[in-house]
Amino acid sequence: MRSLAELTTLRVGGTPNSLVIATSESEIIEAVSARPNALILGGGSNVIVSDDFHGDVIKIESQGFVNDESACAGAWVTVAAGHNWNDFVATAVANGWTGIEGLAGIPGTVGATPIQNVGAYGQSVSETIAQVRAWNRKTKSVDTIFAADCEFGYRSSVFKTNPDTWVILSVTFQLPLGTMSAPIAYNELAAKLKVELGDRVSTSDLQTAVLELRAGKGMVLDSADHDTWSVGSFFMNPRVEDAPENAPHWPETDGSFKVSAAWLIEQAGFKKGFTLNGRAALSSKHTLALTNRGNATSADISELAEHIVKGVKAKFDIELKPEATFIS
To answer: Half-sphere exposure (CA, 13 Å, Cβ side) for 13?
Structure first.
């Protein structure tokens, strides 16, 4: 039996009692109905699974998409939950579908993106999702959840706050047609593209720049690079009433500020590569990623995360919250 360390990007986790690979909607529904308490995995890129975990696992590997395109409505693309997210972004750029090019390089599957309301470089999936089709474990029926009912928030959704209710089967995106990006809103991205804030570039150029930026931070999966043995950004950027002096921050609609978690971590004294035991460490490229240096356990990851949370709390009185989900 394959261990969870083989099925997750952080490469930790115990050996499941059973593992079912579901490659179609009917297989997903059948597997979930037979194992209602199973852990649902896509790409395994946003979970920290305990080494003591020995439950049932259903890995979703359904593939493909269907496009209903028109000049007025744009591309209405329904994508299977197990379809690789980065592959779908590449397909969108190649076909002239806009709105997700800034999300290139994010690991995982399409079905996982609504759960976390995945976002980066000024884009989030909630801006383009039209509806989500999901199996309701409680009513034993297929639900269609429209975007307005998904309760999207910062790295959150109705699917994340109700983890035992739905298993996502497919996601429908409404993507405008075109080859130009939205105005560039991030200094780092503008500098990479050698343009000014507010300028637009081709979606292809933006996709390439994002992939290069992410790779430079160890955020594009590479089995030979331990900096990518992670869940990507481990902590969310916290929202605060008053941002610490000199901290990179962005105003929110409710009058609060979102502060850079990476900056808080560095200013609290945790530099790139920081480690407690040599097994789990901050990435050598980016302080927001906690990484497995080759033989870390889930306990090692948890210990390092807790140590950093305490350090930031002591320095700034701000509590960091994880993006990833801990599975015991």
So the answer is: 31
pLDDT at 69: 87
Range of the domain at 28: 4-60
- Are 72 and 38 in the same domain? no
| Residue 253 pLDDT exceeds 90 | no
Report if residue 170 sits inside a domain: yes
Question: Model confidence at 271, in pLDDT bands (50, 70, 90)?
Answer: very high
**Catalytic option among 11, 155, 214, 279:** 155
Annotated catalytic residue 30: no
Catalytic annotation, pick one of 170, 233, 283, 298: 233
> Beta-strand (E) ranges in the chain?
18-22, 39-41, 47-49, 56-60, 65-70, 74-80, 119-120, 123-124, 129-136, 141-146, 166-175, 239-240, 249-251, 257-259, 280-282, 290-292, 325-327
